Amino acid sequence: MQQSEHRYKILVIGDLGVGKTSIIKRYVHQHFSANYRATIGVDFGLKVLNLDQGTIRLQLWDIAGQERFGNMTRVYYRDALGALVVYDVTRSCTFEAVRKWKEDLDDKVSVSGGKQIAAVLLANKCDQDRDDAFAKTYAGMEQFCREHGFISWFETSAKENINIDEAVTCLVRHIMANETELLQREAVNIVSPKLDSGHSPPCSACLRP
Q: Cα torsion for 142, 146, 151, 153, to the nearest 10°?
């Protein structure tokens, strides 16, 4: 079977200190350190993924937590096809910020046809004790995701390598499915030329002796 190749730009967004850089380092390099410094502006991670007889080249954009309050996110978000929105289960305020990150994302970037880009919600640092404010929140996570346009959510831990690969694979598969749907829709919309069954009057040149 012929291999296909795709290039996807994936955003990793969320408040300062939720573990975005750690998630990318774990996914790309299978490495974790507790000593990462806060990202300034934007950083990048590159990963080649082989999935379903295809080669996926991922650009993971690590967007600094304070950037939601600036004007550069529109530039950073450009051409993205998917996003991981991250919060820290030990700090309920970072979950409260998820809605604003998603609104900012939907306001500034969309895919073909004006659809929202695919987004997966990550409840990070699940290996640590949760903020008590999450006791009720977890029971309604599925509904929260439906209401705010997330395709799925995962409890993750960069430290313990929990659900990082699964979350990214879920996002990538959704992007691929959207691409396939778009190609099929475009194929259906192609209008094939048809011969006119009616009889047109002959042109003047044909009537010349």
A: -30
Q: How many CB atoms lie within 10 A of CB 205?
A: 6
State the Cα–Cα distance between residues 10 and 57, nearest whole angstrom: 10
Q: Which two tokens stand for residue 101?
A: 């990150």
List b or e across 88-104, with b for residues whose CB sees 16 or more CB atoms inside 10 angstroms: bbbbbebbebbeebbeb
Q: What angle (nearest 5°) sits at the alpha carbon of residue 17, between those of residues 48 and 129?
A: 100
Q: Which whole-number Å values give the CA distances from 15 to 39, 101, 147, 168, 181, in the listed order?
A: 11, 8, 21, 19, 33
Residue 47: φ, ψ to 5°:
-145, 135
Residue with tokens 């502006």: 41
Q: What is the pLDDT of residues 141-164, one digit of tens each?
A: 889 999 999 999 999 999 999 999
| Rg of the chain on CA atoms, in Å | 23
Look-up of token digits 């499915």? 177
- The pTM of this model reads 0.82
What sign does the dihedral 154-157-163-165 (CA atoms) show? positive
Question: Strands of 82-88's sheet, edge to edge?
Answer: 42-51, 54-63, 4-14, 82-88, 118-124, 152-156
